[in-house]
Amino acid sequence: MYNLLTKLYPKAIRLGINLPKYALYRNVHTTSATFQFYQDETKYKTIYKFPYIKQFVLMDRIKLYQTSVTALCAPFSIILHQLDYISGDVVGFIWALGFSMCLTLYSVGFLTTKHVGFIYYNEEENLVKVAYGDFWGRRKEIEIPVKDIVPLSDLPVSWTDGLFIKFKRFSTPEVLRLNFRFGVVVDKELMKKIQ
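Below the sequence we write its predicted structure tokens.
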């Protein structure tokens, strides 16, 4: 832990300045020691984790990178065609390839966006913290009272139930996605409390 803090705040350590409390868990995902401290400090227990959340978030980021590359290359190819550097067939190929790749990645992105990676439970305050990947490929965390979660038994049957189960709240129409086929329920008793 000390080695990690010296890397993050070398000048503060040399000067003997007291580090802010958030510095101890600023980089939550770098080592298991800092993650353990974060859990102890806030009294949250992990009850669900999805092991492929990093790949899902990466897919969301690749989708955006591909869109920006297509947005740059498509007009540039028209400029090169106007200057007679490339033929019209090459321009058509560049546009078709770029847009077909974008279409494919956005179709796959439909499945990977808003997928729940972790669910943490705080018994003292009866709160659930849900961590998921958003459209931009960033981790988002929201704290939800257990009473606000729609039970899975109250959800209607959907054609997407084979891929993921919807995680809904009463207070908002936003829908998150859970995958019990590949996701791991760490604590089944606590998971039953929030369903």
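The helical segments are 2-8, 10-15, 32-42, 53-82, 88-112, 188-194.
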